[in-house]
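Structure (tokenized):
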């Protein structure tokens, strides 16, 4: 709501006045939009309207609080959406977390603690091929060692195999395993890849991803016809 965008109509929610996500979405649908962005799917009513909107040909973008991309699908089922509707409506999910970006002017190469390498399962031969960086601090980054942020993500495309699993009420672990077999890079791998590229530090990924595996992450679900 902070920006005026050409061709985009926005609605400010006001729960005290009765304008909730669900009520606002109903009003939006009367305008026959091509693309709908719902800030967050918080309840079953909003989820049902979003799915119904997707089934009628709208592209619906929204966010949902879950642990992983795969658990987005099971979460929608738990909210009361029929599995076959979830399977036929959701076309893609992006799970992401933000990490601090190393300052390119002062990042310093170093050898990480052996305990971290062991925890990540990196063998000594692989370790020797990777240059790890740590924050140093300079005037460019206000002596913090970091400048800006970047997202580490896992992107799940919903193909026929995953649709069948959702329809048969498979668990999130089963869905994630199938997605990995089809080439999905999970959020841990993406985080480590950005470490290898020198974009962030190993400790930053450990703090943000590995130390929060049991915490709730935020996913962005894309729902379409």
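Design, position by position:
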């Amino acid at each position: 709501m902070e920006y005026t965008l050409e061709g985009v109509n926005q609605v400010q929610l006001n729960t005290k006045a009765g304008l909730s996500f669900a009520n606002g979405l109903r009003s939006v649908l009367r305008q026959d939009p091509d693309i709908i962005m719902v800030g967050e799917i918080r309840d079953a009513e909003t989820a049902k309207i979003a799915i119904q909107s997707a089934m009628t040909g709208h592209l619906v973008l929204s966010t949902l609080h879950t642990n992983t991309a795969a658990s987005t699908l099971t979460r929608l089922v738990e909210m009361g959406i029929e599995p076959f509707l979830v399977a036929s409506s959701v076309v893609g999910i992006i799970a992401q977390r933000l990490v601090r970006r190393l300052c390119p002017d002062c990042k310093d190469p170093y050898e990480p603690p052996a305990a971290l390498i062991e925890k990540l399962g990196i063998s000594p031969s692989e370790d020797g091929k990777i240059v790890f960086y740590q924050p140093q601090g300079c005037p460019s980054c206000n002596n913090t060692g970091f400048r800006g942020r970047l997202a580490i993500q896992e992107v799940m495309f919903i193909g026929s195999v995953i649709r069948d699993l959702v329809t048969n009420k498979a668990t999130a672990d089963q869905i994630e395993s199938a997605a990995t077999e089809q080439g999905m890079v999970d959020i841990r791998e993406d985080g480590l890849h950005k470490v290898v590229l020198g974009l962030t530090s190993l400790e930053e990924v450990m703090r943000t991803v590995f130390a929060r595996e049991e915490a709730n992450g935020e996913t962005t679900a894309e729902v379409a016809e």
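Reviewer-requested clarification: Strands lie at 35-38, 59-66, 90-102, 108-110, 132-134, 146-157, 217-223. Residues 182 and 200 are 27 Å apart (CA to CA).
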